[in-house]
Specification:
mainly beta; Ubiquitin-like (UB roll); four-stranded mixed β-sheet
């Protein structure tokens, strides 16, 4: 049985999400015990939304699901790394492939890449 330590952050653990083919970091999210169990049982990345305080199946609204291919657990059993197949090409709610599309250059920020989809069209239906 897999035991994770959900005690350090009020019942949450960080989940680092990485493209299983390229290794690109797509996003960071949080899981509670229910999200962890849902991810294990369905094979679809499920997280806990701190804003909405509810479970969130990645891509349920946008269609950009994350199919879990591999899971790794850190040495302290309090962080997971999900290697996923990113369906639809975009992990970020802004439409970008990765949530990490802002690059710091000196004292400014440069946007890397173009959005894969228009979030207004996807989320404001």
């Amino acid at each position: 049985m897999i035991k994770l330590n959900f005690n350090k952050m009020d019942g949450l653990i960080p989940a680092i999400v990485q493209d299983d083919k390229t290794g690109e970091v797509l996003m960071l999210a949080f899981m509670n015990k229910d999200a962890w169990e849902a991810t294990l049982s369905t094979g679809k990345a499920t997280y806990y939304s701190r804003t909405r305080q509810t479970l969130w199946i990645k891509g349920k609204t946008s269609g950009n699901l994350q199919i879990v291919k591999e899971i790794r657990i850190d040495c302290d059993d309090d962080t997971v790394l999900l290697k996923v197949e990113q369906v639809g090409g975009a992990a970020c709610h802004t439409g970008h492939k990765s949530c990490f599309y802002k690059m710091v250059e000196g004292e400014s920020i440069r946007i890397i890449g173009e959005p894969v989809f228009n979030p207004e069209e996807v989320y404001n239906r």
